[in-house]
Amino acid sequence: MKSMNVATPTQMTWLRTDEQVIPVSPSAWDHLSEVESALHRGIEAMTDENHPGFYEIEIGDNWYYIHVPSRLRAVYLVAAQNRAASKGSAALQQTAC
Question: Tell me, what CATH number does 27's domain have?
Answer without folding.
Answer: 3.30.2310
